[in-house]
Specification:
By secondary structure, the protein is mainly α. It folds into two domains: 85 residues, no CATH class; 35 residues, no CATH class. 50% of the residues lie in helices and 10% in strands. The protein is built from six helices and three strands, in the order H-H-H-H-H-H-E-E-E. A three-stranded antiparallel β-sheet has the order 1-2-3, with no helix packed on it. Strand 2 and strand 3 form a beta hairpin. Helix 2 packs antiparallel against helix 4. The longest helix has 18 residues.
Length: 132
């Protein structure tokens, strides 16, 4: 739809349109439904890859170079960052969610340089150690 509506886009116009209309749809509730299958991850990333080709002056550049020029990051990296932010909010009580539904503070004897937030993730198949 964006391609049909705009014949020529410069980088500033593209960023405004992309950040306003396209990326929010791809990231809506992403921490809840985060894609795990490689094909789903590649499908989401291909939307961003295709969208960054819409600026004709940067069309021939590799994907990573286009991202760098626009000041964007790969969607997978944004999902990881969002997961870490959400984990921090749950651990610090900013989100009013029972932490023990998702994590347990681990009391292992490992010294992680004074880090007190070692976690055990509660998985249906049994607890799994994860250091965050």
């Amino acid at each position: 739809m964006v391609r049909r509506s705009f014949k020529r886009l410069d980088a500033d116009d593209f960023l405004l349109i992309y950040k306003t209309y396209i990326r929010p749809h791809m990231e809506y509730c992403i921490q809840a439904w985060s894609p795990h299958l490689v094909k789903d991850i590649q499908t989401l990333e291909s939307v961003q890859r295709t969208a960054t080709r819409m600026v004709s002056t940067l069309k021939k550049l590799p994907y990573e170079s286009r991202l760098h020029r626009f000041g964007l990051t790969a969607l997978e990296r944004r999902r990881i960052r969002g997961d870490l932010i959400e984990t921090f909010k749950i651990l610090t009580g900013i989100e009013k969610v029972d932490m023990e539904q998702f994590f347990e503070l681990s009391d292992t004897g490992y010294n992680l340089r004074g880090h007190s937030k070692r976690l055990t993730v509660n998985m249906p198949s049994g607890p799994q150690k994860v250091f965050l």
